[in-house]
Structure formats: structure tokens, C-alpha cells
């Protein structure tokens, strides 16, 4: 019998058999690839040899020698060589196997190393890219968060700033905010906006100094063409001639204004607004809603169990349905009444014509949340979005919810920033563009537009006068009498249009809009 000795890797052992000629038996440690290759070769050539109890004899093609597989265990092959005429020994076979092992090992070793190296490099590069992206995202987020925080702080401070450069500071911040947005991110009209964006504080203080035209950005990128009008060319030229005559003839304008100042509305009692418990709800006692023409609140829903608010319905052609509600800027004690009025009259548009503070004097209370929502009695107001259209005005969108009924409505506020008390806007074109934005949002509605400044008379009256006259023209009116229209407004609320400059500005704005409409009409 032949016994295979225990050997270590890389060593050959000799098996001494008894009763048979000396036969060398080697256990040779090779790689799995060599074993597989050698085993396959033996299987392919096995049909050429003869089987024995110890293995299969196979003959090489080069020389006639017989190799018998003794045992294959894992990576080890045990074989023996029978006596042959070529004197090929087991050592010769082992040497050949060793050389084959070396040659075969070269290929998988190099390939495996190369693949491992490539995989390692790709893995490292991928990890570095991911880390770089994460770091860049973190830096951008931190910078934007810090920028928004600083912007909000500055704008919030403007609410109490009495310095003369408050207007310039606010408008510069507005320009910076618009400049950092790509063109694709410019705000869309409010009626098409549904996404919530970051809120900019609306605190605005005016130090009484108007900024120069050079400090303003051009409005050509956001102005709109005049709306479609039924006015024909002949009527337009007649109205334009009337307006220009008033503007060019200063004496005529002066006399017409003096006549308007002497006009007294009948009736003109304001006893309800000046009565006990209500006088404190007025910003000024010089502008109080008439008893016969005032908005009344539902007492059961009122915070103070009162139906009074200093607000007047303004009728146009339909005496049953007011076209506007002219009111004062809310006081801290009347904010809940203001939102109750908005809800009960079904209003969806608010036109605000005053900054919150002007030369250190409060013009209007901050009656909406800077972000998130605030609860005013039973009305929850949620700021949805805020868009800065230009230096002169911005637009906000609110969700107004009645907490008793859980009904929700959308309300849009158009805030004109640069119209100071007892004054006029720097450009009539700016206000006309602002009006077009308001009417585009309001188009098709039957509810009144809420218009307020500080006292709800000077700036509010001027805006309502311009809008009412232009609406009449758009509906095809053949004759326009602005003085008579103003008397009609003063019959419904006292002190509407407070200065001659405001009346003259209304004439100028109407003339400019008529001229723009005539240019748009087919000649």
C-alpha cells in the first residue's frame, strides 16, 4: 500500500510502498485555477487511459508516460507515475505542474489587482464627490438662512425707525431681494400663485424724504397695457381735451377746487361714530363715517359687542351694491373689527395706500402676520405669500378663516408704499400700473374693494376717484365730470380728496390713461 505523507505548502513528500516497486507519490499544493485546469485536462484525456483502483491513467501527447490521479482534495492533487520508458518521474510532472501554476497564476493575480484598484479608486472618488456636494449644500443653506435673517431684522427695525433715510433703506433692500432671484423666479401675478414663499417683513417707515428718480428701478418690466375699453376715439379725444383744459388753465382749476371745498354733503351727521364707546375707534375725529352711509358689523360676532367701524360703502352706478369700502387704517383695538368687515362683506381685495409709519407718526397698525398666522377674535389670518413687484408696491396673499364656521377664503392685499399723507405719488404712471394689477386680480368679482390709507379719505379718495372715472370711461360713458364725481364721493364719506394737489393728480392720471387708451385703439 502507498501512504501519502503529511506535507506543508510548497513541499513534496515521498511515500514508501511495500511489496511493490518504489513509486513516488507527491502531494502538491497548487492554486484552485491550476487544479481546475489540471483536473479538466485529465478528464478530457481519461478516455485514452485505463482505470485502476487508485485513479485514472492518462497519457500525455508528447511522451508516453502514465499519470494516475490518486486523490484530489481542495487545492491539493495527489498522483503517481508508473514506470515508463521515457524515465519520466513524479518530480518531472511536479515541475511541469509548478511551471503551469506560475504561468496561470500570473493572469488572475494581475487582473484581480487591477480590478480591485479600479474599484477602490472609483469608491474613493464617489465618496469625495458626495462629501463635496453635501458641504456645498450646507454652505449655501447657511448663507441663505443668514441673509434672510439679516434682511428680516433690517425690515422689522424699519417699523420704528424715524430716520430720514428709512424709505431709501427699504427700497434698497427690495432691489437687493429682486436682484438675487433668477429671471425664472420673478413673481407671477397673485391670482396664479399657489406656492408659499419666504415672507419679507412689511414694516415700512417713511422719514418724509422722497427718493430721487435715479434711486428707483425702472417700472417698464412690470407695467401692463391699459385694459380693453369701450371708449371710442371721438369720446376719448373730447375727454382728453377737457382734462388738458383743466390742467393748463390754473385759474379754472383753482376755482373748481374752491367750489369743491365749499361743498357740504346732506345729510352729514356722524353722531354714531362720535358717540360714547365709538369715538376711541376713530383714528381722527375729522373723518368719521356718516350715519346714513356706514358699514355695520354683526353685533353677535363683534369683539366689542358693537356694530361700529369707521368705514363707508362707496356706491357707483348701483345703489344696492357698493363698489368700494373706504376705511381708515386699523388701530390696535379695531383689527378684529377690520377682518370681521372683510369677512361679512365678502371682500377679496384690499388696497392699502400708506406706509405703516411716516416721519415717526403711526399711519396704520400692522394688521396682518409677518409669517405664519395670527388670530384676531374669531378670524385667523395666514400669510400665504408676499411679492415685491417694484420699489413702489408689493402684493400679499392671505388665507382668512372663520374659526366658528371653519370656512376659508383667499384675500389679496395690494400695498402701495411711497404715497405720503397729504401728498401725491411721484409718478401717475406708477399708480396707474398699480391700479391695473388690482383690477386684474379683481376682474369678474361683485364684492366691494376695500381701500384704506391712514384716515380713509385723502389718498383713498384720490384712488377711488381715479378708478371710478376710468371705469365709467371703460364702460362707454360719453361725458365725464370729475368734479361732480368727487361730490358724489363726498356725499358718502367726508373729506374725500383732501388737497388741490391730489385733485390735480387725479386729473393728470385720468388724462394719461385716456391717452394710453387712445394709442391702443385701432386708428
From TrEMBL:
The keyword RNA-binding does not apply. Residues 432-504 form the Tyrosine specific protein phosphatases domain. It is found in: Cytoplasmic vesicle, Secretory vesicle membrane; Synapse. Residues 253-513 form the Tyrosine-protein phosphatase domain. GO terms for biological process: insulin secretion involved in cellular response to glucose stimulus; regulation of secretion. Pfam families: Receptor_IA-2, Y_phosphatase. The keyword Lyase does not apply. GO terms for molecular function: protein tyrosine phosphatase activity. Residues 212-224 have a biased composition (Low complexity). It is a single-pass type I membrane protein. The chain crosses the membrane at residues 51-73, 119-143. Keywords: Cytoplasmic vesicle, Glycoprotein, Membrane, Phosphoprotein, Receptor, Signal, Synapse, Transmembrane, Transmembrane helix. Residues 201-228 are annotated as: Disordered. GO terms for cellular component: secretory granule; synapse; transport vesicle membrane. PANTHER family: IA-2 PROTEIN TYROSINE PHOSPHATASE, ISOFORM C, RECEPTOR-TYPE TYROSINE-PROTEIN PHOSPHATASE N2. This is Protein tyrosine phosphatase receptor type N2. It comes from Esox lucius (Northern pike).
Amino acid at each position: 500500500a502507498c501512504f501519502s505523507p503529511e506535507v506543508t505548502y510548497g513541499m513534496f513528500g515521498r511515500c514508501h510502498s511495500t511489496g511493490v516497486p518504489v513509486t513516488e507519490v507527491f502531494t502538491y499544493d497548487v492554486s484552485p485555477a491550476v487544479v481546475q485546469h489540471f483536473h479538466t485536462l485529465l478528464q478530457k484525456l481519461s478516455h485514452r487511459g485505463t482505470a485502476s483502483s487508485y485513479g485514472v491513467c492518462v497519457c500525455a501527447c508528447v511522451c508516453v508516460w502514465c499519470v494516475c490521479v490518486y486523490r484530489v482534495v481542495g487545492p491539493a492533487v495527489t498522483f503517481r507515475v508508473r514506470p515508463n520508458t521515457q524515465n519520466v518521474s513524479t518530480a518531472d510532472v511536479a515541475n511541469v505542474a509548478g511551471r503551469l501554476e506560475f504561468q496561470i497564476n500570473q493572469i488572475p493575480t494581475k487582473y484581480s489587482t487591477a480590478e480591485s484598484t479600479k474599484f477602490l479608486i472609483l469608491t474613493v472618488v464617489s465618496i469625495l464627490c458626495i462629501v463635496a456636494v453635501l458641504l456645498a449644500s450646507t454652505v449655501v443653506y447657511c448663507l441663505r438662512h443668514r441673509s434672510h435673517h439679516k434682511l428680516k431684522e433690517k425690515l422689522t427695525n424699519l417699523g420704528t425707525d424715524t430716520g430720514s433715510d428709512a424709505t431709501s433703506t427699504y427700497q434698497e433692500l427690495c432691489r437687493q431681494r429682486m436682484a438675487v432671484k433668477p429671471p425664472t423666479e420673478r413673481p407671477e401675478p397673485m391670482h396664479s400663485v399657489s406656492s408659499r414663499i419666504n415672507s419679507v417683513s412689511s414694516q415700512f417707515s417713511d422719514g418724509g424724504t422722497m427718493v430721487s428718480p435715479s434711486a428707483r428701478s425702472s417700472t417698464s418690466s412690470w407695467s401692463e397695457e391699459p385694459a380693453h375699453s369701450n371708449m371710442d376715439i371721438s369720446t376719448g379725444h373730447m375727454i382728453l381735451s377737457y382734462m388738458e383744459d383743466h390742467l393748463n388753465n390754473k385759474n379754472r382749476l383753482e376755482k373748481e377746487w374752491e367750489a369743491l371745498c365749499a361743498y357740504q354733503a346732506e345729510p352729514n351727521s356722524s353722531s354714531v361714530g362720535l358717540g360714547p364707546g365709538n369715538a376711541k375707534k376713530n383714528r381722527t375725529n375729522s373723518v368719521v363715517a356718516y350715519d346714513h352711509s356706514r358699514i355695520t358689523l354683526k353685533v353677535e360676532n363683534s369683539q366689542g359687542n358693537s356694530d361700529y367701524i369707521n368705514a363707508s360703502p362707496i356706491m357707483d352706478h348701483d345703489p344696492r351694491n357698493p363698489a368700494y369700502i373706504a376705511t381708515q387704517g386699523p388701530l390696535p383695538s379695531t383689527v378684529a373689527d377690520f377682518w370681521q368687515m372683510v369677512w361679512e362683506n365678502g371682500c377679496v381685495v384690499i388696497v392699502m395706500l400708506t406706509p405703516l409709519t411716516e416721519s415717526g407718526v403711526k399711519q396704520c397698525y400692522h394688521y396682518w402676520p409677518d409669517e405664519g398666522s395670527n388670530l384676531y377674535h374669531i378670524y385667523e389670518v395666514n400669510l400665504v405669500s408676499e411679492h415685491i413687484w417694484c420699489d413702489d408696491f408689493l402684493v400679499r396673499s392671505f388665507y382668512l378663516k372663520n374659526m366658528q364656521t371653519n370656512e376659508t377664503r383667499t384675500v389679496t392685499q395690494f400695498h402701495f408704499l411711497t404715497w405720503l399723507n397729504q401728498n401725491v405719488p411721484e409718478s401717475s404712471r406708477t399708480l396707474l400700473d398699480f391700479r391695473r394689477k388690482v383690477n386684474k386680480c379683481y376682474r369678474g368679482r361683485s364684492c366691494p374693494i376695500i381701500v384704506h390709507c391712514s384716515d380713509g379719505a385723502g389718498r383713498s379718495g384720490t384712488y377711488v376717484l381715479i378708478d371710478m372715472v376710468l371705469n365709467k370711461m371703460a364702460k362707454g360713458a360719453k361725458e365725464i365730470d370729475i368734479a361732480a364725481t368727487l361730490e358724489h364721493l363726498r356725499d358718502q364719506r367726508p373729506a374725500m380728496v383732501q388737497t388741490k394737489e391730489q385733485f390735480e393728480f387725479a386729473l393728470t392720471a385720468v388724462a394719461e390713461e385716456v391717452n394710453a387708451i387712445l394709442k391702443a385703439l385701432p386708428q
